[in-house]
Amino acid sequence: DPPAAAPAGVSAAPCVPLFPDAADRSLPVQVDFYKVLGAEPHFLSDGVRRAFEARAAKPPQYGYSTDTLVGRRQILQLAHDTLTNQSSRTEYDRALSEDRDAALTLDVAWDKVPGVLCALQEAGEAQAVLAIGEHLLEDRPPKRFKQDVVLAMALAYVDISRDAMAASPPDVIRCCEVLERALKLLQEDGAINLAPGLLSQIDETLEEITPRCVLELLALPLDEKHQIERQEGLRGVRNILWSVGRGGIATVGGGFSREAYMNEAFLQMTSAEQMDFFSKTPNSIPPEWFEIYSVALANVAQAIVSKRPELIMMADDLFEQLQKFNIGSQYAYDNEMDLALERALCSLLVGDISNCRIWLAIDNESSAHRDPKIVEFIVNNSTIDQQENDLLPGLCKLLETWLVSEVFPRSRDTRGMQFTLGDYYDDPKVLSYLEMMEGGGASHLAAAAAIAKLGAQATAALGTVKSSAVQAFNKIFPLIEQLDRSAMENPNDGLEEPVSKFDQKNIMGFDIHDSKNAALKIVCASALFALLTVIGLKYLPRNKVLPAIRSEHESMTVANVVDSVDDEPIQIPRMDAKLAEDIVRKWQSIKTKALGSDHSVESLQEVLDGNMLKVWTDRAAEIGRKGWFWDYTLSDVAIDSITVSLDGRRATVEATIEEAGQLIDATDPKNNDSYDTKYTTRYEMTFTGLGGWKITEGAVLKSS
Length: 704
Prior knowledge:
Layout: E1 26-30, H1 33-37, H2 45-57, H3 66-84, H4 86-98, H5 100-104, E2 105-109, H6 113-122, H7 126-138, H8 143-166, H9 172-188, H10 196-218, H11 227-241, H12 258-267, H13 271-280, H14 289-306, H15 310-324, H16 340-349, H17 353-360, H18 372-380, H19 392-407, E3 419-420, H20 421-425, H21 428-436, H22 444-455, E4 459-460, H23 467-475, H24 480-489, H25 496-505, H26 519-535, H27 542-545, H28 577-595, H29 610-625, E5 628-644, E6 650-665, E7 673-687, E8 693-703
Antiparallel strand pairs: 1-2, 3-4, 5-6, 6-7, 7-8
Helix pairs in contact: 2-3, 3-4, 3-6, 6-7, 6-8, 7-8, 8-9, 8-26, 9-10, 10-11, 10-26, 13-14, 14-15, 15-16, 16-17, 18-19
């Protein structure tokens, strides 16, 4: 091709008319020609041309006006003409090295600014698009102009949301914040009809990740600095949990069941916040079994923290309600033995040792209430003699271990708390309350004094209870493992059923042609991956563990356990950092073969597929026709992030690569070229069955 004429004044002045035929009014905008084309400084003219053709062939998916699309094409053309002409490119590169800001600044005609914003957004310049867009909107532009600006800004916000979810750890709060801004822009500034699909996708994405965002807000530190954000999180929990439940929809956005989400939320709330949530829940929302049980434990935790034994009595009342009424659950909690341990330990916390022994049936070997494993635990932690309360040390150890391993971990303010039984039983407020309970031959004060004496030298804290005691305590609950497994299999717990629901909605299947416009796809993948990880955390089944205590002669039936979803499951290698690095290294090795002196083009299909295979096959063939070859040296590969689809068959991998390359033309050395660079790239990978994992798309994000 004949060399294009160099654009006038590329380096002469920072403000150069970009479109001479445009209106007189203009706006200075910084435009990096390399970035808008998706090219790199080391690209030859042929590579720049291919980058231009790739951008030009894939217009934006959403509804920009014709004028904006023309403006986009013009800025791409200008960048192409500048960088494919040796003279103008040399001058442009020199200007960049001398005064980068001045060289990048172009005076863009006012009516062409939306087209330039469109190109900048595609190039990943989200912050620049937002800054320019906000300035333009302040000027009250015409409707069509404004809609194009708003659309570019909304897509820029989506790009930022993608980056937030790609961070380690994902910044879900930031993601929600910018997506809400994008949604507000589209709804309030007249761009709804331009991109209804984008609006719908943002709305659906927010619906999926808002529950996780609320959990992140709750997880912020319990200090004054974060008080406003945590209050927002508490309001969010109410909005979410009060809109689902019995008689309504069964799941929260993101695939949580109401039960699973409440467990996660409570883990990030203090015991007082849990109690407040329960007390303010509207009467129109009947409490479920797990909800009452969780709040009963919160009352116990708060009683210890605030030294208020009256809260122990409230907790005991809640446990009693659960014994009397089999409140809706798939588990058959219809036997009062289910909560015998909880009620026994509540009795012990108010100094009623006699009632504690009755609940545990310690003195009645024939009682159906007696659980031999609990008795064994108590005996093993006691010193046996002829005294009436010779099992008190074992009872205290049982109480201590229950509080530390089961009660305290459920609340932010008690998790990891330093605790001694003596601190509680020797407190004046506790003693005053126990004194009021005296009567009927029971001496609550005497019991408290005895327990305080026992606990004076024994400090219990999360992680400091002897492992042998915890292990022995866990043996009291032979059905824990079975319940944990059943909870993961049961569709009502929000795991299997929501996953299939996600597939039906095709959340991952947005028809987005350009990789930079695939932000929502990445956001959803990251969010759902994070959410599914959260659902599997160890505390989720705990609300069913303690109520599941039964005597060795009883059994528990778990209904509605789903069968395996797949009769013939396909063994897909799990995409992780090691596998991703292996694939990237394999690709770099095969690239050397295909574009090297051997020109082994057929080897590309070993690691590439789809569009990536086509692009590199054409590129390798062209290099071969010209008699050129590349010699690559790979220095390092680092996997930055991995996002895996719900079905495990697709993954987005971002990697940082250090690579040197040398282009060799044996017939004409003046075509020789070389580079040594570090760049970040994104690969779309797909599991292809017998062919294993292959790269189907690739894009360089940045280089240094």
